[in-house]
Design goal:
Serine Threonine Protein Phosphatase 5, Tetratricopeptide repeat; mainly alpha; 2 strands; 13 helices; zinc; zinc-finger; metal-binding
Length: 359
């Protein structure tokens, strides 16, 4: 951690507050020198959550433009600052989202908080552009079991959406998804299903019924139906989710094979974390139902194997591929044996090249 502790002797008339809790701060980041903390725990949490990615970006943003700068130059400074602020919003949003997909709710909080503060600086309080940050904070708090705090963030987001009829379908689907998550976590299943149905409606209107985005609502609904012991409905939704992700990953992999292109960066970290979490959830639900569905498990394992092949983890891809192959052979009509065998050959070949240091 390059951001070391430095106790402050604050000049008179200045007040430094903690980046995470806004309490009086006495510790300064020696990297950017513009970020402060009330204790080392908050400094370490912020560093792990987001600060290490944005440390050098913060200094020019939090340093006032010199008063003596001429008008034209001042406008240039403002334009540069706005560009950096927008970059900061996107980095913090993407980081928080990835950590949430990884179920790392605690580390998602600092990134989500920075996203909200940065968006407020750029767009002002009550702007629709703040909604994604409120939803990230709500999801992180739901994951941590802080339901009252999550409810407050969702209320803020809902108020903005209600007063702004121009809100996009994307914003509306994200709002309903998080309301669904909150009600599911508090076991108000009927209300949860109502909001998740709205989530699926808005997501499908924007992205289509067979989109991986829409699948996020399906898997949350499947979890609820599973808890209600409505296994047929839960497995039907899981099959839809597994098919959609399988087709999506197959298209990406096939495109790279056809174009003889490298698999490096074929899928970004956030989507990889989302796919892994979703498909693992399908497997976990299937393993708990009274009647097993080997073809569904083979489909999910094959999708996961493709995911890790795209992520250049060839050993993991081969392991999941072998599991998928064994499951597919339990149901001869599954139709997955040949593509799984091709994937295994590719994983073993690429793994062999990696072991010998060849690209």
């Amino acid at each position: 951690m390059s951001s070391t502790i430095n106790p402050l002797a604050n000049p008179k008339g200045t007040k430094k507050v903690c980046e995470l809790c806004e309490k009086p701060a006495h510790i300064q980041c020696t990297g950017c020198r513009v970020t402060f903390y009330c204790n080392t725990e908050h400094q370490q949490a912020d560093w792990a959550g987001i600060h290490q990615k944005v440390c050098q970006l913060l200094a020019p943003l939090r340093t006032p433009i010199p008063f003596h700068v001429l008008g034209a130059e001042r406008e240039h400074h403002r334009a540069q600052r706005l560009q950096r602020q927008e970059q900061l919003i996107e980095i913090s949003r993407a980081t928080a989202q990835r950590k949430l997909f990884e179920k790392n709710h605690w580390e998602a909080l600092p990134a989500a908080q920075l996203c909200l503060c940065s968006a407020t600086d750029v767009y002002g309080p009550g702007a629709v552009q703040l909604v994604p940050a409120y939803l990230l904070l709500a999801e992180a708090n739901i994951g941590l079991g802080r339901f009252s705090q999550a409810e407050e963030y969702l209320a803020q987001a809902e108020w903005i959406v209600m007063k702004g009829p121009e809100c996009s379908l994307v914003v509306r689907h994200q709002l309903h998804r998080n309301l669904g998550r909150l009600h599911a976590a508090t076991e108000n299943f009927e209300e949860a299903l109502f909001h998740l149905a709205n989530d699926v409606y808005y997501a499908s209107e924007e992205f289509g019924l067979d989109s991986t985005v829409t699948c996020g609502g399906y898997i949350l609904m499947a979890n609820i139906f599973f808890k209600q012991k409505k296994y047929d409905i839960a497995m039907s939704l899981c099959t839809e989710v597994a098919n959609t992700w399988h087709s999506h990953l197959y298209r990406i992999l096939d495109s790279h094979i056809q174009n003889y292109s490298s698999l490096h960066n074929a899928i970004d970290e956030a989507q990889q974390a989302e796919a892994d979490r979703t498909l693992q959830c399908v497997l976990e639900l299937e393993e708990q139902i009274p009647k097993r569905v080997p073809c569904l498990m083979a489909l999910a394992c094959h999708a996961l194997a493709m995911l890790w092949l795209l992520g250049n983890d060839f050993a993991k891809a081969a392991e999941l591929g072998r599991r998928a192959l064994a499951l597919s052979q339990l149901e001869p009509d599954c139709g997955l044996t040949e593509p799984i065998q091709r994937l295994l050959k590719m994983s073993e070949a690429r793994g062999g090249l990696e072991a010998t240091g060849m690209s």
